[in-house]
Amino acid sequence: DTAVSQTPKYLVTQMGNDKSIKCEQNLGHDTMYWYKQDSKKFLKIMFSYNNKELIINETVPNRFSPKSPDKAHLNLHINSLELGDSAVYFCASSPRGQGGGNTIYFGEGSWLTVV
Amino acid sequence: GQQLNQSPQSMFIQEGEDVSMNCTSSSIFNTWLWYKQEPGEGPVLLIALYKAGELTSNGRLTAQFGITRKDSFLNISASIPSDVGIYFCGAGGTSYGKLTFGQGTILTVHP
């Protein structure tokens, strides 16, 4: 299936731990993103990468470090997890072309709970 | 920062009714998109709009990119129970992929 896929879907971890969320897209898109959805369902961009290069970093704490080994993968590593990091994290990608850069396709989400 | 005002926040309707929701902004955008999110899933793209005035349909869904480039609406005709979910508008400018989202409209359809 062509899609944006991310793992794990659910993650429960203790404060202070370090965790990673992996993301892969087989849509052939050049640009990938991490978005965060809070408890009020508000969606906000965290990072975007174009062909492995960081292009958007939205004042996210430096405990969050994205890594893009190639243009089909964008992983998110989080150090020293805090209670406030509990949220749903969505990986996404977009193609080039008119408006294409803004046509975002989301993965199914990773539900992170920090206890 | 930029914000989108999406309304209504929630709707409770009977199956078969038509639904209308909209998003407005004080800023101009180049792209308007509408997504649907179901529980435990990611937002799924319904309609993407790229030109001011553009009117696009996807089955029972119709969306328009406002002439002022500051608003968009989504209509759903003849609603069915599987239309239940949260509908989000998103808008993008020249910083590709940096979408601003509305607060979402929670749609409940009673059979």
Structural class of chain B: mainly beta
Please give the largest β-sheet of chain B.
6 strands, mixed
Poorly predicted tracts of residues of chain A = none
**Shape field of chain A:** globular
Distance linking N and C termini of chain B: 40 Å
Biggest interface and its residues per chain?
Answer: A-B, 26 and 25 residues
Count of distinct strands of chain A: 11
| Radius of gyration of chain B, whole Å | 13 Å
Mean pLDDT of chain A: 92
The number of distinct β-strands of chain B equals 11
Overall spatial form of chain B: globular
String of helices and strands of chain A: EEEEEEEEEEE
Oligomer state equals heterodimer
Going by helix content, strand content and strand pairing, the class of chain A is: mainly beta
What does this structure look like?
The complex is a heterodimer of chains A (115) and B (111). Chain A has 115 residues and is an all-beta fold. Chain A is 0% helix and 55% strand. Chain A has strands at 4-7, 10-13, 19-25, 31-37, 43-50, 53-57, 64-70, 73-78, 87-94, 105-106, 110-114. In chain A, the strands form two sheets. In chain A, strands 2, 4, 5, 6, 9, 10 and 11 form a seven-stranded mixed beta sheet that branches. A four-stranded antiparallel beta sheet of chain A has the order 1-3-8-7, with no helix packed on it. In chain A, strand 5 (43-50) and strand 6 form a beta hairpin. Chain A is globular. The N and C termini of chain A lie far apart (34 Å). In chain A, 36% of the residues are buried. The model of chain A has no long low-confidence stretch (mean pLDDT 92). By secondary structure, chain B is mostly beta strands. Chain B contains no helices and eleven strands. In chain B, the strands form two sheets. In chain B, strands 2, 4, 5, 9, 10 and 11 form a six-stranded mixed beta sheet that branches. Chain B is globular and about 40 Å long. Chain A binds chain B through residues 4, 31, 33, 40-45, 48, 56, 58, 90, 92, 94, 98-99, 101-109, and chain B through 30-31, 33, 35, 37, 40-45, 48, 50, 86, 88, 90, 92, 95-99, 101, 103-104.
